[in-house]
Write a structure and sequence with these properties.
By secondary structure, the chain is of the alpha/beta class. It has helices at 8-14, 42-50, 62-65, 88-100, 119-128, 141-148, 180-186, 199-208, 238-244, 262-265, 271-287; strands at residues 27-31, 53-56, 73-76, 105-109, 133-136, 163-166, 190-193, 216-221, 229-234, 251-255. It has 2 domains: 14-139, Tetrapyrrole methylase, N-terminal domain (Cobalt-precorrin-4 Transmethylase, domain 1); 142-287, Methyltransferase, Cobalt-precorrin-4 Transmethylase, Domain 2 (2-Layer Sandwich). α7 packs across α8 (199-208).
């Protein structure tokens, strides 16, 4: 690079790949990630700047909405369990109505809307209405939340599989149709989404199916945001500890030995503490 070569943010922006056109009369279904605006994809950032209308859910924070184009109209369409919420049919109808009016419509949802979100349902409705759309996944809370807490979701010494489980069924009740014995015996790491309400029920099912009550658990509320709250516990005590800590949704629950890696990788720990824990984990691995 010579002295005449541009540098800094302007130069970086000039090197961005060409983004697809956001056509009038279309809807982009976009994941905004779990909260930190820095975790937005380039496509999500591009859509925010191009959209005429942004229909956003309750998990999309002000820091992300602040990136919208100057003329964008923002429509709140949050759905939160136990609280007054927009009806799904009304949200879908609004997307179709705005697109048919020739608007560039951004449907912005927290995390990845295609993992226990309603992104697929909304896409099917758009397809049935012959409305053009694009699906843009986001970083899911399980991956990002655990990483921000100092826990890799996989480690080849610990687990070669991960199982994602929803904490409630379509009607709001617990996920009764699961094979709890198979989950307890065959899944080295379990990730529970939207599970605070039914956590005691789910933990009881897993323990009854054979999972050790002392299995390590981490609960992460409001992952990747300034209000992130982390509680380390074990399976038998997880629900009581979540209540004692007054954890609030949205929250991710991870169950399995991978939680133990946090001792060496916790961003809030001192370098000395992390080094001691890393050496201890390495020594345990050598003995195995």
């Amino acid at each position: 690079m010579n002295e005449n070569t541009p540098s800094g943010p302007i130069a970086a922006a000039s090197r961005l790949p060409e983004m697809p056109a956001f056509e009038p009369g279309s809807v982009w279904l976009v994941g905004a990630g779990p909260g930190d605006p820095g975790l937005l994809s380039l496509l999500a950032f591009h859509a925010l700047g191009q959209a005429d209308d942004i229909v956003y859910d309750a998990l999309v924070g002000d820091g992300i909405l602040a990136l919208a184009g100057a003329g964008a109209v923002c429509h709140a369409a949050g759905k939160r369990g136990g609280k007054p919420s927009a009806k799904q049919a009304d949200i879908t109808e609004k997307l179709i109505e705005l697109a048919r009016a020739g608007r560039k419509v951004l449907r912005l949802k927290g995390g990845d809307p295609f993992i226990f979100g309603r992104g697929g349902e909304e896409a099917l409705a758009l397809a049935a209405a012959e409305v053009p759309f694009r699906l843009v996944p986001g970083i899911t809370a399980a991956v990002a939340g655990l990483a921000y807490a100092g826990i890799p979701i996989t480690d080849r010494r610990v687990n070669s599989a991960v199982t994602f489980i929803t904490g409630h069924e379509a009607g709001g009740g617990p996920p009764e149709g699961l094979d709890w014995r198979a989950l307890a015996s065959g899944a080295p790491v379990l990730i529970l989404y939207m599970a605070l309400k039914h956590l005691a029920w789910m933990a009881e099912r897993l323990i009854s199916a054979g999972l050790d009550p002392d299995t390590a658990v981490v609960l992460i509320s409001k992952a990747t945001t300034a209000d992130q709250h982390i509680v380390e516990t074990h399976l038998a005590a997880a629900a009581a500890d979540a209540e004692a800590a007054k954890l609030e949704a949205p929250a991710i629950v991870a169950i399995g030995d991978v939680v133990g890696l946090r001792a060496a990788l916790d961003p809030s720990a001192t370098p000395e503490a992390r080094a001691r824990a890393a050496l201890a984990l390495s020594a345990d691995g050598d003995r195995d």
